[in-house]
């Protein structure tokens, strides 16, 4: 990452801190910033909520068989992290709340054994059982089992960290205004704007660094494919899409499609992706009362798979309901995989996916930096990423059992294309430009970033907008582009230390000696 980008954000963070500490709102307020956790606790909570574990063989730290029937309701207020969970513990049905930590020793570190509010906890969940204990004590003297998630993750933690977005999950709606609120609504607006914009750039640098990590041992075509695959996912199943991109890589998918053209080329890729993902019906299920178009499609897909099965047989993803958990029908995975198949089939030349895509991107890049030219470019990129394939089986279907929708639907729609452009293509372009030393291309990528309009807001944006600005008009006037919204994410991670329920971990309130 260029030093200038990092220095800009960190320098502005120190400027804001100095001015904030000197303001009346901050008098007498000091709190020590905790050491950074290797994994944010919120990520551990999301892993529990999405049940990102192997399908069977779960056991508590004491060795008792465990089944997770319902992870519970995400608690947006004080108390245990999840409410009204349902589990089977050693064959016995148990209902109660669940508390989740990164390290098991956090139970005592946070004082839960002295807090009667946690007497309702039925299971203590941790990512790592760092102190080796088998259970924990409640305020009322009862003991509860521990479950160490790290020993049962599927896919692995690296894939989960690459794909799961903790900001997609609920944030404490009762947290209220932050201690910095009075400062942010009174400070010079140009400084606040510079600070948030620098935060947005630093967050984009983080996305670029993650792609750089993925590039090790891969090429840019595979990187583009992995980015598109992950973008097709929703919350907990993003990790499955990422895993699928590794088990059915772009070059191997293209190699298996040699000699096929048009619709048949895309359908052959669909066949491989559906079967490796475990989403194709088993042979004995064909006895169901599928309609004729479905049977015809399955016959074609299974013929393609019969040719390729031997090549991918040892890479099949075990069947899991997580593919469709909490996903709206229009986003069901089979439809998304069909969109990927058509994009790859229509874009690649030979085994190369990235070069022809970059060539098409360069053709629509504007020669001048004007706002009108950039708007036209963003629209052209949206069209480049959108997949309309009305002849495809999935253009009118949600599942194999569902009736046709009546009219064709986009396999990759405009709003998803915009999200892919911002979150995947811009960091990919930055990384490529730096690897190739193309300064002009990097500058263009940043210009594309700077003018990107707002994407749909999510939980962190709404939460941080209120924490910093409350009902003040700045909450709308300042957040007028996606880079500014991304700045809120960076402030949450870098200044709030990912803490939502209070301001005790605030960077601005921390004593400087304890931060160095």
Describe this structure in words.
With about 525 residues, the protein is an alpha/beta fold. The protein has a domain at about 40-165. Helices cover about 50% and strands about 10% of the residues. The chain is built from 20 helices and seven strands. The protein has helices at about 5-20, 40-50, 105-110, 155-165, 180-185, 190-215, 220-230, 240-245, 250-255, 260-275, 290-310, 335-345, 355-365, 370-385, 415-435, 440-450, 460-470, 475, 480-495, 510-515, and strands at about 65-70, 75, 80-90, 90-105, 120-130, 135, 145-150. Strands 1, 2, 3, 4, 5, 6 and 7 form a seven-stranded mixed β-sheet that branches. β3 and β4 (about 90-105) form a beta hairpin. The two termini are about 20 Å apart. Residues about 25-35 and about 510-515 have low confidence and may be disordered.
> Averaged pLDDT, please?
90
Quaternary arrangement of the chains shown? single chain
The global form is globular
Classify the beta-strand content into a percent band. 5-15%
Total of DSSP H or I helical runs spanning 4+ residues: 20
Query: Spans of 5+ residues with little confidence (pLDDT < 50)?
Result: 24-37, 512-516
From the alpha carbons, calculate the radius of gyration and give it in angstroms: 25 Å
Helix content: 40-55%
In total, the number of strands is 7
Please trace the helix and strand order, writing H or E for each element: HHEEEEHEEEHHHHHHHHHHHHHHHHH
How far apart are the first and last residues' alpha carbons, in Å?
22 Å
What can be said about the biggest beta sheet?
7 strands, mixed
Class inferred from helices and paired strands: alpha/beta
